[in-house]
Write a structure and sequence with these properties.
The protein is mostly helical and about 70 residues long. The chain has two helices and no strands.
């Protein structure tokens, strides 16, 4: 099966977008974990603090998804 130059360019572009997305994910994930560690150090690592962090991050993710859909 031959791949045309156009198809190859499309494949490369899709791979670059995937790499960009992975880089963004890695950056956000690293920052979220650092923030959670800071909060756990400040408030302690009991179940209440962990649950509050998880709930806050879940709410933030939902807000981001909602806002992103509204902006389209």
């Amino acid at each position: 099966m031959k791949v045309t130059k156009r198809q190859l360019r499309k494949i490369i572009k899709e791979m670059q977008m995937t790499d960009s997305g992975q880089a963004i994910y890695d950056d956000v994930n690293e920052r979220a974990i650092a923030m959670a560690e800071e909060i756990l150090n400040q408030y302690g690592s009991d179940d209440i603090a962990i649950e509050a962090i998880v709930d806050a991050l879940t709410d933030a993710a939902q807000t981001i998804m909602t806002d992103a859909k509204l902006m389209r």
